[in-house]
Amino acid sequence: MTVEEKWFACRDVWDIINKYLPSCFRGKTGARKMRLFACACCRRQWQHIEGTPAARLVEVTELFADGLASIAELKDAREAAEKASSAIDDDWRNEVRPNYPAHYTATACISAAADPAIGEVHDSPQRAAIFAAQVYAYKKRGFYRADDRSWDRHQAKENAEQTAIFREIFGNPFRPVTADPAWLTSDVVALATGIYSDRDFSAMPILADALQDAGCDSEDILNHLRDPNVTHVRGCWALDLVLGKE
Questions:
Q1: Domain locations in the chain?
Q2: pTM
């Protein structure tokens, strides 16, 4: 099996990042996409943190990834999320039943907001994904027990979904696709910008139609935008191509 084949077959976040992701996407080059991947994992558990400092941290992290929030804003948001997460720990110490899904989702969000001072994300995306997958397993099985293999299966199921999101963001790094500038008409770019800013991914097939009308003949791009089985997120490789994002 080639590395490319392993990339598409992989169902483990740690492996797809550390074994199969080409080195050119590590460090600063892939930092934006890595951050958006971590945030996408957290958003899959959004119901546990909506309206909380952890949710705000995800939003600020996404803004930071696109250069729309400062390091200071990111750090402030992270400190607020850490304080909220610590409050749940205090509930445990005070023998108050804690909200574990909220706690672990908040922990995932904190991991997603990697320290930008070092310029790299290191293993923060992996940690964010792991905590988010634990939330899914906890919802299915409750507290972890070493003798309960179904807990591990639930976590592995969510982990597999996360690898699909990772491929949604990075595409096929072994066969990169380029966009012809002639396809990027004002209407196409305006539509893509609206999809990205509003998270209206239901409009992806409409974007595919607009691209095709503009002369796009790339089956990779058009098929991806029209695929009903793809869960689209910010950082989608095809949408990024249209918007000129890396």
A1: 3-170, 181-243
A2: 0.90
